[in-house]
Design brief:
single chain, mainly alpha, 11 helices, about 85% helix, about 0% strand
Length: about 240
């Protein structure tokens, strides 16, 4: 009985993680990834256009809920669904829905990771991890913006690591919301022109974001986001001289 009582807090913290893991596995076991393809969009684009025209609010709400689930369960279909958002709602409406959905879904992962393992990890962390946590937390907004702007790391990883380093939820959500806007607009913009691509019998290029004309401005924004970190280091160096 005592062992059960001691284990209860751990189980209480870990059951949301178990749900996310089971949902991720179930997505592939059920073969749902086979339906989220460009061929499916091509074959159903007229139907989707009709549904959006007749039930705009309901369809937008359903799309938003779907995007939250996709991000929360870390399903590797965010890019195709972002493109679908552009096809269905245009570049402005699609971008708003994707950014809001991704921010909410990311926040859910962040909160689950922080409550499940973040606090216990920080209690057991050594001096090096604590220094890393303090450094990251002092410049959390700048670091988070860089991580969101530059597509170097998996989206799910950037959702989890800040929770383990003690980043505030408000800072995390603010950086996520604004940091994912440029990349979102790129993919949703692809979807906005998807009809013409299908009419030519082509497939959209998901590597578009890595082209210099697209990636260059995004890297510029990332560099600007990192300037406060460099300024703080410069001030500390100047004060010690």
């Amino acid at each position: 009985m005592e062992a059960v009582i001691q284990n209860k807090p751990i189980l209480h913290r870990l059951w949301p993680v178990a749900i996310l893991v089971l949902g991720f596995i179930g997505f592939f076991v059920a073969g749902l990834n086979d339906y989220l393809t460009f061929e499916t969009l091509r074959d159903n684009r007229e139907y989707l256009a009709t549904v959006v025209a007749e039930h705009a609010v309901l369809t937008a709400t359903a799309f938003l809920a779907l995007y939250i689930v996709v991000v929360a369960f870390s399903l590797p279909v965010a890019a195709p669904i972002s493109i679908a958002g552009g096809l269905m709602f245009g570049i402005v409406g699609g971008s708003v829905l994707v950014v809001v959905g991704a921010t909410i879904g990311s926040a859910l992962v962040f909160l689950i990771a922080r409550s499940a393992i973040g606090d216990s990890l920080r209690r057991r962390a050594g001096p090096w991890v604590r220094r890393l946590e303090v450094g990251f937390r002092d410049n959390a907004l700048s670091y988070m913006l860089v991580l969101r702007l530059v597509p170097l790391f998996p989206f799910w990883l950037v959702n989890v690591v800040p929770a383990l380093l003690g980043v505030r939820c408000k800072t995390y959500m603010l950086a996520t919301f604004f940091g994912i806007i440029p990349g979102t607009v790129v993919y949703v913009g692809v979807g906005d022109g998807l009809g013409m691509v299908f009419e030519k019998g082509q497939t959209p290029d998901l590597g578009l974001i890595f082209e210099p004309r697209i990636l260059g401005p995004i890297l510029g924004l990332a560099a600007l986001s990192f300037l406060p970190v460099l300024y703080k280091r410069f001030r500390r160096t100047s004060d010690t001289v």
